[in-house]
Design a protein that fits this description.
The chain has 194 residues and is an alpha/beta fold. The chain has 5 helices and 10 strands. Helix content is 19%, strand content 29%.
């Protein structure tokens, strides 16, 4: 069965973006980027990977799921299909009929995310990347098989948390690996404890 992997950048104080969705504080230069290019080349937007001549075929994902706010970050830049090398599923209730133009390999849906992810997990293929955001991650928390956290050495002070508040309900994960880079970024992978 395929795994759902929440792969995301996070600050030391647990935010994946600023209050208005800003993510420019996260370091985009440094030795951690080479680690990302090697281990997670499929998480780089298709256009950026092509510009870097980055081979995305060896990645671990073939599908990405995300909420509308995460998806919409690329719209002002004309990115209507940011990860067109993957099957993309965007969850929304209010933007189903927006005219997005051409959007290869992208489905916009108001279906229940849990049902969609369970269906995807039952199909053959590689892992499924949960790209964000926090509300979707909270909805899918019991479907998440792995967390891959790119912890950056910064404190945002406010913003969009890794998971939205949903009531106290501990879920245990075991550390699989941790890599520390000179840039100060630490990439840790955790598997759900069964």
């Amino acid at each position: 069965m395929r795994e759902l992997v929440y792969y995301v950048a996070v600050s030391l104080d647990g935010y994946i973006a600023g209050p208005d969705g800003q993510f420019d504080a996260f370091p985009m230069e440094g030795d951690h980027m080479q680690g990302i290019f090697e281990r997670f080349p499929d998480t780089i937007p298709t256009v950026a990977a092509a510009a870097m001549d980055l081979d995305q075929s060896a990645g671990r994902f073939d599908t990405v799921v995300m909420g509308w706010n995460t998806y919409a970050v690329g719209l002002p830049h004309g990115l209507t299909s940011p990860y067109r090398h993957l099957d993309q599923v965007v969850f929304t209730r209010s933007h189903l009929h927006d005219d997005l133009g051409e959007r290869p390999n992208l489905t916009v849906t108001d279906e229940n995310p849990v049902e969609v992810v369970r269906r995807l997990k039952a199909e053959p293929g590689r892992s499924i990347w949960l790209c964000g955001g926090s509300a979707l991650a909270t909805t899918l928390v019991d479907e998440i098989d792995r967390l891959v956290l790119k912890r950056s050495p910064l404190v945002l002070g406010d913003g969009i948390p890794l998971f939205a508040a949903s009531g106290y309900a501990p879920r245990a994960f075991d550390e699989v690996s941790t890599t520390t880079f000179r840039s100060g970024v630490v990439i840790s992978e955790y598997a759900r404890r069964r």
